[in-house]
TrEMBL record:
A single GO molecular function term of this UniProt record: antiporter activity
UniProt xrefs under SMART domains: CBS (SM00116)
Stretches assigned to the CBS domain: 600-664, 697-755
GO cellular component: early endosome; endosome membrane; Golgi apparatus; plasma membrane; synaptic vesicle
Species of origin: Urocolius indicus (Red-faced mousebird)
PROSITE patterns named in the record: CBS (PS51371)
Family of this protein: Belongs to the chloride channel (TC 2.A.49) family.
Keyword Transport among UniProt keywords: yes
Localization annotation: Endosome membrane; Membrane
Protein name, per record: Chloride channel protein
Pfam family, one: CBS
Length: 760
């Protein structure tokens, strides 16, 4: 909106809006912002600063500070997001190990840190040291036997329940918005929706604390999605310190887009992947300037996390791998099969999870969030403890599944039968027959896979912070590792088959099962979220496997194709629709042949459109209209008879303008005439002072004709971020189309319930 007062300013005393008053230009909760108006306001502000900068040195310095404020905000976001991510990683590491035992030399040490500091640790028993004691050793001085196992089992469940109960209680009492992944809401907020408090300071604090608790409890969830929410809370906090961002909702969303990139950067140690994730998955408006700033924020965040070094391996991530074998063309077939599995798992998960979440919203189950969390935690802990692959944290599990079997590995997955005559270098171990440990690990992994698939459906969406990236990757990594071991044994025992003959000679290191785990993880994550480009970049940054981009791309594309065949929605879009947020997805296509006249209101048989006239309504008339309706704004016409359109006035600004006029301007009473023209109307003598409100009038509201195809209208709403659009014929006002009307019409055309769009 161009400020009409700036263009048509007059010295009339009655235009008290020559000076801006508090709260003008702000929006109510659960309403959509006007992107065009925010952009115009920022242009006006920038023009004013540029013209003032030529007046004095001080104004020039102020203009430089204004220009640099964006980079300062990015620096602060990167520093805080990186620090919080490092603290969360360290705390999760310690509290996860606390369920199994405690370090006697320093109780704040995790198991690994405790044994690092020990001088009595041998390489073969590097997980055992006298300073680290399991609870059974500490309480009853027994480390083996049934009683020790039962005591450790009981305390594992007890700690898990304590962590989960504390987390859900903190969320419920202090910050209800701290639950869930946060990405569906971040996507909605970045599209221009206002959810006050969602990115507030309390949400930031409680989400950070409860994220540590829920991940440590052993529930099937990750911290990566919630870290994006945490980073966006940091972005919102720092943008509120600079008026350039705090007073302009459009500019604020540019900061939040960059903050989302920083969140993924620290979640996965993938700065470039973070920028691409923000661009591909969460951002609605992403100008080139935001791309550079996102890159800078992601860089600072990754650098900060690297300085903290939470994993103690001088890497940004826990999963760093180094494979010594190239992949071969024949392996593309199992990679594509893993892609198909990822797509099918993604479809199954989305449908089951949405059905369960809908049941939670519509039945009594939703009234007992604490009980639900306690029950799911108890079931998870009881089933997880006996299986070593579900007992440990999901991140450690993925790390083990990704690892190649070197000569120094002590994992069950690496229990192969060695040739005693082998004299190969350590890094180049040939394929070998599987030993009993590998077969035990295979059936344990199969049970863990089924358990993860089922329990994640019920865990995601509970009233606690819950990310989906790590559980999805774990499902894919387990399936991939099993396929990898299968292909490896097939190649070893049947190396004379035509598919293996050219590239897998006896005694060669042909197949890397860890690579299959990596490809499976990418496929399952792609099937659930429908990411492609950012997913592949995140995966190779996450693992350091730059050589394996083609297998990752093949799996990611296949999983997207297979999942899209059953439904276009990823998990985040599905949760947006479930919650009824007004989100116009750029990926959705509208192909129906309807016109603007079919969607606009009022429809045939409905009351006529509520309008304001340019110079014939009193203050009382306008206040009555505002009281009797709940519309967000009103078209202004020349008169009720002509209905020729003049402009559009926002409801909130009308209320504020009249309230301020009554307080600050003498002579304004209930029967004062309100006029939106440049010159006051001719009034009889002794009439009360009229009130000029031209400056709050948008003189260039977006209009379409009644015969405009809805395909074009939908495109306009998407690309310009409109709140509403007026329908005219030959300059005469016929009706109005709001964003909610567009979403309802699209739902109707897709045979969905149009009343599911709940917010304005």
């Amino acid at each position: 909106m161009v400020n009409a007062g700036d263009m048509n300013g007059s010295g009339n005393l009655m235009d008290f809006l020559d000076e801006p008053f508090p709260d003008v230009g702000t929006y109510e909760d659960f309403h959509t912002i006007d992107w065009l108006r925010e952009k115009s306001r920022d242009t006006d502000r920038h023009r004013k600063i540029t013209s003032k900068s030529k007046e004095s040195i001080w104004e020039f310095i102020k203009s430089l500070l204004d220009a640099w404020s964006g980079w300062v905000v990015m620096l602060l976001i990167g520093l805080l997001a990186g620090t919080l991510a490092g603290v969360i990683d360290l705390a999760v590491d310690w509290m996860t190990d606390l369920k199994e035992g405690v370090c006697l030399s320093a109780f704040w040490y995790s198991h690994e840190q405790c044994c690092w500091a020990s001088n009595e640790t041998t390489f073969d028993d590097r997980d055992k040291c006298p300073q680290w004691q399991k609870w059974s050793e500490l309480l009853v001085s027994q480390s083996e036997g049934a009683s020790a196992y039962i005591l450790n089992y009981f305390l594992y469940i007890l700690w898990a329940l304590c962590f989960a109960f504390l987390a859900v209680s903190l969320v419920r009492v202090f910050a209800p918005y701290a639950c869930g992944s946060g990405i569906p809401e971040i996507k909605t907020i970045l599209s221009g929706f206002i959810i006050r408090g969602y990115l507030g300071k309390w949400t930031l604090l409680i989400k950070t604390v409860t994220l540590v608790l829920v991940v440590s409890s052993g529930l099937s969830l990750g911290k990566e999605g919630p870290l994006v929410h945490v980073a966006c809370c940091c972005g919102n906090f720092f943008s509120s310190l600079f008026s350039k961002y705090s007073k302009n909702e459009g500019k604020r969303r540019e900061v939040l887009s960059a903050a989302a990139a920083a969140g993924v950067s620290v979640a996965f140690g993938a700065p470039i992947g973070g920028v691409l994730f923000s661009l591909e998955e969460v951002s609605y408006y992403f100008p080139l300037k935001t791309l550079w700033r996102s890159f800078f924020a992601a860089l600072v965040a990754a650098f900060t996390l690297r300085s903290i070094n939470p994993f103690g391996n001088s890497r940004l991530v826990l999963f760093y791998v180094e494979y010594h074998t190239p992949w071969y063309m024949a392996e593309l077939f199992p990679f594509i099969l893993l892609g198909v599995f990822g797509g099918l798992w993604g479809t199954l998960f989305i449908r089951c999870n949405i059905a369960w979440c809908r049941r939670r919203k519509t039945t009594r189950l939703g009234k007992y969030p604490v009980l639900e969390v306690i029950v799911i935690t108890a079931i998870t802990a009881i089933i997880a403890y006996p299986n070593p692959y579900t007992r440990r944290s999901t991140s450690e599990l993925i790390s083990e599944l990704f690892n190649d079997c070197g000569a120094l590995e002590s994992s069950q997955l690496c229990d192969y039968i060695n040739d005693p005559n082998m004299t190969r270098p350590v890094d180049d171990i040939p394929d070998r027959p599987a030993g009993p440990g590998v077969y035990t690990a295979m059936w344990q992994l199969a049970l863990a896979l089924v358990f993860k698939i089922v329990i994640t459906i019920f865990t995601f969406g509970m009233k606690i912070p819950s990310g989906l990236f790590i559980p999805s990757m774990a499902v894919g990594a387990m399936a991939g590792r099993m396929v990898g071991i299968g292909v490896e044994q097939l190649a070893y025992h049947h190396h004379d088959w035509i598919i293996f003959r050219n590239w897998c000679r006896p005694g060669a290191d042909c197949v890397t099962p860890g690579l299959y785990a990596m490809v499976g993880a990418a496929a399952c994550l792609g099937g659930v979220t429908r990411m492609t480009v950012s997913l592949v970049v995140i995966m190779f940054e996450l693992t350091g496997g730059l050589e394996y981009i083609v297998p990752l791309m093949a799996a990611a594309v296949t999983s997207k194709w297979v999942a899209d065949a059953f439904g276009k929605e990823g998990i985040y879009e599905a949760h947006i629709h479930l919650n009824g947020y007004p989100f116009l997805d750029v990926k959705d296509e509208f192909t129906h042949r309807t016109l603007a006249t079919d969607v606009m209101r009022p429809r045939r048989g409905e009351a006529p459109l509520s309008v304001l006239t340019q110079d014939s309504m009193t203050v009382e008339d306008v206040e009555t209209l505002i009281k009797e309706t709940d519309y967000n704004g009103f078209p202004v016409v020349v008169s009720k008879d002509s209905e020729r359109l003049i402009g559009f006035a926002q409801r909130r600004e009308l209320i504020l303008a009249i309230k301020n006029a009554r307080q600050r301007q003498d002579g304004v009473v209930s029967n004062s005439i309100i006029y939106f023209t440049e010159d006051p109307p001719e009034l009889p003598p002794n009439s009360p002072h009229p009130l000029k409100l031209r400056r709050i009038l948008n003189l260039s509201p977006f209009t379409v004709t009644d015969h405009t195809p809805m395909e074009t209208v939908v495109d306009i709403f998407r690309k310009l971020g409109l709140r509403q659009c007026l329908v005219t014929r030959s300059g005469r006002l016929l009706g109005i189309i709001t964003k909610k009307d567009v979403l309802r019409h699209m739902a109707q055309m897709a045979n969905q319930d149009p009343e599911s769009i709940m917010f304005n």
